[in-house]
Amino acid sequence: MLKIEDLTVEVNEKTLLHDVNLEVKKGYTNVLFGPNGAGKTALMRTLMGFSEYKVVKGQILFNEEDITSLPVDERARLGLGIMMQRPPDMSGIKLRDLVRVASKGKKNPEDLAEKLDMKRFLDRDVNVGFSGGEIKRSELLQLEAQSPSLYLLDEPESGVDLVSIEQVGMTIKGLLEEGVDCPGESCKRGKSALIITHTGRILDYVKADRGYILCNGTVMCSGNPLKMLEEIKNRGYEECIRCRLTM
Ligand SMILES: Nc1ncnc2c1ncn2[C@@H]1O[C@H](COP(=O)(O)OP(=O)(O)OP(=O)(O)O)[C@@H](O)[C@H]1O
């Protein structure tokens, strides 16, 4: 589904990512860990095609197609969708209209918003004055409307209170299992995801298949995501950087 090969990325001639290799297979949910400033958000934004991130080496393959040079809208059309860590305010654009466009007019914004307790936000400008948790739910609403095949989720639980985390977690679980008629261990989910998490709270709701640790702009390790999380909680990133984890 997604294959990143030797990816090196610059912003304003500063190298943020170098020689990144990472893969998300169809139906898999992979997790990206890493300390502050490691380049995790830069990687997500590069994958989505934000124009300030210049790929100077390597490639991004999506369903075996080279998408490295494609603009954001074409990547979205192919099935990539992103939940941003800090999405911009969109003055003058109502959430209802964005949801309608994201679903190509196929889904009713009211029905989608009902589930996420977002009906009262539909006629507000997107993100303007939204709280941290409301922004996350708004992002999820847009993703649910778009229904991409690969979800790029940048810290979905950050800023979400302890009660709402269950709503966010269960919504993401539902999105990833969309279209699957045999949920459980015996069959893979239909949708794929790459999730950035610091706390790992989201993994209480979503089963992760593989973890990656990004440090100083490159992938240092990959392996069992829950073991990685435990290791990070106990010993920080040092041991991971030295790749002493049991893979
Ligand atoms: N447009 C930019 N211009 C210059 N530097 C940038 C730009 N965007 C990101 N950076 C720098 O790149 C580094 C990686 O940033 P990034 O947001 O990807 O980190 P992160 O791993 O997501 O961190 P966090 O866990 O704190 O969210 C940081 O030092 C950041 O300041």
From TrEMBL:
<protein>
    <submittedName>
        <fullName>ABC transporter ATP-binding protein</fullName>
    </submittedName>
</protein>
<keyword id="KW-0067">ATP-binding</keyword>
<dbReference type="Pfam" id="PF00005">
    <property type="entry name" value="ABC_tran"/>
</dbReference>
<dbReference type="InterPro" id="IPR027417">
    <property type="entry name" value="P-loop_NTPase"/>
</dbReference>
<dbReference type="InterPro" id="IPR003593">
    <property type="entry name" value="AAA+_ATPase"/>
</dbReference>
<dbReference type="InterPro" id="IPR003439">
    <property type="entry name" value="ABC_transporter-like_ATP-bd"/>
</dbReference>
<dbReference type="GO" id="GO:0005524">
    <property type="term" value="F:ATP binding"/>
</dbReference>
<keyword id="KW-0547">Nucleotide-binding</keyword>
<feature type="domain" description="ABC transporter">
    <location>
        <begin position="2"/>
        <end position="241"/>
    </location>
</feature>
<dbReference type="InterPro" id="IPR010230">
    <property type="entry name" value="FeS-cluster_ATPase_SufC"/>
</dbReference>
